[in-house]
Design a protein that fits this description.
The chain is mainly beta. The chain contains three helices and 20 strands.
Amino acid sequence: MPRPTKAASLVAIAAVFFGISDAHLFAQTAAAQSAVATKTLMQEPLDDTSEPKVSVIRLSVSPGLIAGPHSHAGPVFAYILQGDIENQVEPNPPKIYRAGDFFYEPAMHIHRLLRNLSQTELAQLLIFQVGDTGKASPAVKILMQEPLTDIRNREARVMTVAMAPQAVLRPHKHPGPVFAYILKGEIENQVDPEQPKIYRPGDLFYEPPMHAHRLLRNPSKTEPAELLLFQVGEKGQPLATSAEE
């Protein structure tokens, strides 16, 4: 039996992520079909919370700064955008994290240590936090907040989506909310009822539940693009369905 090609493997990876057939999801060109790959970084259940919402936060950690022990009412999903940090969330030991690394903080676990290892360079983290954020410090910039209508039997996933030049996805929709942060390159995106728009590194867009995601495309002919996604869905259910007319 012939082995699957690299192109077919990448299509299968992305189709598994979205939970729908690649025939519906991907534009029918060889370039697009071989050019999308996803990687799940974290997948955790959502805890009950008195204030079900998601906050997307950019945290700037000054050179040499050490944040003291604290805890959060809801789970926290953190991704290192730049810099090197030392971090400890009980019961785990301290660990060094660098750009592209990530960690999970369960609700009400003691966050014992967060330290910027550099004495000269700023460190930055992108954080997806569920529940009450409390009183934010000046270092915390809330980029977006959206309510969660139902968290029963729900889980959250943090994943990267890498798109080669001119990669395109077919229209689809998600049963749960999606928050997307552009890590690299440019993305042309349209979620109904909005118009198409170009997003660049540091930009963020929100996809409400069951809104048709008409377009997700890397418009560049030469440069790859990468997104970081936070998606809420029901346990054991597909993450997306087709939105073809």
